[in-house]
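Morning!

As promised:
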Amino acid sequence: MTTYKKHGTSKHRFCLICGCTDTMILQDCQLAGNRDHIRRFVLCRECSDRLASRSPTRTENQAGIPQTMSEIALRRETRKQKAFDRLGTDHPICACCLSSDRRFMESHHLEGEKFGETLINLCRNCHRILSDGQQDHPPQFGEPPITEERIGHWLLGLADLLELLVTKLKEFGNYLIDKARGAAAVPAETTP
Amino acid sequence: MSGIMRGDAASTATDKLTVALRAYGVPEGREEPPILSGTSRRGPSRWNLIFDTETTADPVLRLRFGAYQLRYGDELRDTGLFYDPAALSEADVGVLKNYTDAKHLKLLTNAEFVEKIFLRAAYHWQATTIGFNLPFDLSRIAYLHSDARGKMRGGFSFHMAPEGMKAPRIRIKHLSRKASLIDMYGSDQKLSRGMRKRKIYGPRRRPAFVDVHTLAHAVLGRSSTLGALANTLETPHRKLGTDEHGKPLTPEYLDYALQDVQVTWECFTELRRRFELHGLERLPIHHVYSEASIGKGYLRQMGIRPWREVQRDFPDELVGIVMGTYFGGRAEVHLRRVIRQVAYCDFTSMYPTVCSLMGLWRLVIADGVDWHDATDATQRLLDSVTLADLQHPAFWEQLHVLVEVDADADILPVRARYGREPQYTIGLNYLTSADTLWFTLADCIASKLLTGKATKIARAIAFTSRKVQRNLNSARIASTDYTIDPTKDDFYRRIVERRQHVKALAKKATDEEAERLKAEEAALKTIANSIAYGVYVQLNVDEEEKPVAVRCHPAKGRPFLVDMNQVEEPGEFFHPLLGTLITGGARLMLAIAERLILDQGLDWAFCDTDSMAIAKPEGMIDKEFFARVESIRNWFAPLNPYDMPLDMFKLEDANYRIGGGGKNMQPLFCFAVSSKRYVLFNVDDQGRPIIRKASAHGLGHLLPPYGDAVPLEEIGVARWQHDVWYRIVLAALAGRSQQVQLRDLANVDQPAVGRYAATTPPLLAWFEKMNEGRPYAEQIRPFNFMLMFQADRIAAIEELHGPAGDALRDKTRGKVEPYLPRAVAGYRTDPAEAASQCFDRETGRPVPRQLLKTYAQALAQFHLRPEAKFLDADFLDSGPTRRRHVEVHAIVYIGKEANRWEEQSYIGLDEEAEIEYGIIPEQRKSIINQAREAGNIHGQRALAKAAELSLQQVSAILRGQAAPTNETLAKLIKGMAELDRKARVEQQETDTAERRLREMVAELGFQVAAVQLEIDAGNFSRMMSGKRRLTPAIVRKLRDQAFLRNRKRRNFAR
């Protein structure tokens, strides 16, 4: 959390954490993130301070006092690093929908567990869709599976992934077109 | 006459010795491990944990408190102090609390630090743990330790949780004073069982550990303390001074501890910056253990695949032959314990130059090597080669040849236990052998230069490089635009050219630019040193839990199986052919210099790998001397492989006046005691010496009795070592080189003490008795410092028998050899206090202080050390040494000679560290026959005694009723050699006695001589006529008589 702005008076504002409505202590808080993806919250001063002290990304104290990490921050970092270790990367991204929150990311065997170890990271939804599709693949007949069978399953897995990607791309394309259509329709309706 | 051509050793053998050759040992049944160039694992996370500990000032060195920083990348996220509540008083804890409150720092107990910070960061976050002398700090925060197993056998495993609780462990295996292997493995699983079973995980991370001390040595090429390192690297913060170790805590002391952590971090970042200059993407910083790591990083960067990977079918038998020809650099003293004016010269980048001249880069990048018989061609070449041929660079490319030699008084490198030395040393000596032996062609040419006759060749194998490996990449050197294409360029040549170019630029550059260029030059030096030699002969020794069957491939004879406790594992870029050709080439360079020196009518004082001190003969004027030196130096000019004019055999800075900018020569003098033990100095107007360069050989294992251990700039030794050399030179200048006055140096009457750390389980075991019954926290632990003292033999005799004189005179009692305790003590800042607490490491009994050698006693023979590998080089000998003429008695095959060398230099020789494969089975029979002969001549009892075996054992072997083990056979050989040596000495003494006897008879007449010697006239007559041998008693009497007469003469002369 890097910047704090003085909140203007408003009847409908309240602290997102404690529900406090005292306008004298409410303030706009801005979360530092992607430059084009800034989120604003309303918090009371007390909650804002508490949140600031928990933040693991805080850098330097204004008074130059050496930084320390709270127990909560240490535990959160442990969870995060364990997830990164499990996923094999510090930047997990769903191969289908591009979501990137490590809390719902999973590793998926592209060809199925029995046929190989090619792992890709997916969000839970996409993982469920692809794993469900794998159940329709031909059953295993070689013990252990021979190379051709492995490659075959790998290709089927890749095809499933591409199929899902195609669906997602179509959905996204249609979404953008609908959005554009909506935007184009609004001025027409409001025009007297 | 001077030099190697002098003396009669060439014609008759002076020594019958067991010669040691290197062999190639391959563990039986063990598959070749896959060679992984690089790692498939992910590196550590961006988190860094830096910590340092402060301990008590007693031998236990128990943790008192420590400081840490936790950083994400470079960004400080958490910092604080931790402490051991049981080691601090309430007042100390109060000081800590007040300090941390005031500074807003975290304060944790050691248990909390380990659980909440260390294990989380190092294990769960896979952070890089950084420290200075990290093994010591890690051992301070551990709960318990045990001996490590598996690949870390020989090291320690530290438990990071109280007994009975599961937690990851840290394993540390000491490699040298500069590097340790550190890893961490967990008892808890980060992944669920199902995930592990189904292999649902990506590439795993491993925690990383960086010891800044190790990194500094690898990047800068020298070791230093944290304070000195910070000064060298000019970090923003510097180490604070304190004398509060072990005292009640103060805020200033806590400041000191926190600053140490900050300085460690800043040193790390600066070293990381310099390391990144190399641009070695495939070498993570936590895998840098030495300069060689950086060299190997460049080879990988260029995509060069190791020789063992590209040519797996190269016969092990041939590797055995190659290893048999391997000898290290040549280091000798020729003019011993005399002051001589010298010109001290060294070869510019010796190993890269040799590599370049011999075209060895082609072997490095080749897809393997081919070999063929070249016996006739090589014999013709040897017969015809002259000094002038060696001046043509093209000639050196023909030297990729190994030669089987029928040695007959040829001057060749001989590895043996000379004199009574317990370890093998290499000397360039006359060699005669009934059986043929393998050497490099370069060594044979060197022999021809020095003896004037060509060696007789039985067989020669020439090696040629195969086609160049595919997919090699150009490498950017030290992150500059200077690139080297391995397929087109000679890497060695280009790297030296670049270094010289940068060096020249730095001299003209502005301050800031010069700084950058100096860093680049240092990086280039590191690369040149590391790739030119070491990586090709790297053999790591693994200690095995139980004996392992190893197939030994000897240079001569069939491979044989032997059970070994130590197994040699070749390093990644192991290529022994390169190793032996490089060192052979370097020895040839020195032999050429020696030949030229002798041809010019000059002499030489000593040589050391790539340098030689050319000595001015008595009576020659300086101008003439330097003109001849110049002519020798100029001889090497055509051998310059670089595209710039370089002095190939250059005069070192020590030859020039101090501050003269390398222009004005000043007479330089040399006093050399033995190999690698020498001093170079000027003499001022008042006749006082000014030391210019000295060696710390034989001094480095002792703590300074006064002053600090930081080497004096340019001279290369510490202050006290300088003073010892100064006294030696003063005595030599005064014409009494044997009587060196050291008594008035500070603290030389204190017990001489050396310091080493308990780096391996056997070393720590010395303190088992001391640790008995103590809680773990109060025990001497791994990596604790310990002090080592030397026992004084004379004092031990006095202790045993009363005054030494009486004991020595008394024949009966004098024979009883006193037990010499091996005294050690836990570390104390005051060595005198430690001396009063020391104990025998074998028995655990206390050792009285009067039994300990003082510095004065320990250094008493420093200036007299014999050069056992040569003749005329005993304690009191001075002047030119002579080469021995070695006749090969037997050949014993050995492994890495330098195994645990550093440890042995501090704590004394350890026979178990030697890797000895033994003797080939074919030779065993002949040795037993020789032993039978020796038994017949000297008696079985004498043989058993000399071999340190029981009479029954020897008798059974000689009767053929027992098959001796390799170890027993080695002892038998040693015994035979000892008897042989004794017989020679006795013969010499008898010859001298006979000569004295005749002189005495001529001087005094037959009757008077008989009366004086108290011999019956009849017996005396038979002795004179040679019908009866002189008895030992007569020989002794004659020696005493001669001694008395000489003394009378001396007294009379006075």
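Residues 147-190 of chain A form the longest helix (44 residues).

Hope this helps with the figure draft.
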